[in-house]
Amino acid sequence: MLKIRFQRIGKKNMPYFRLVLTESKNPPRGKFQEVLGSYDPRKKTSTIKKERVLHWISKGVQLSDTANNFLVKNQVVKGKKIAKHKVSKKAEEKTETAPAA
Fold this sequence. Notes:
The chain is of the alpha+beta class. It has 3 helices and 5 strands; from the N terminus they run ββββαβαα. It has a single domain, classed as CATH 3.30.1320.10. It has helices at residues 50-58, 65-73, 89-97, and strands at residues 2-9, 16-23, 34-40, 45-48, 62-63. It has a 5-stranded mixed β-sheet. The radius of gyration is 17 Å and the shape is globular.
């Protein structure tokens, strides 16, 4: 299954990310089919090939949670952001068993 996700490139302590189209089973720094954009978190700059992203989404390509949130933020894709974090089971149990005041 094809997936659009971020691939980290750049030196140690100098992150830089590519938005790539890749097979979901490939390793994070592995082969990719196409570069769809980039993001520099230090300068807060990004470039996105909007037409290509929309083309691949129309073909049924899945988005990773982070890539989805990035594209929603940059108004390439419409929709809601996806929560990337998961609530731990202990925290979930505490909220369920806490007495109501």
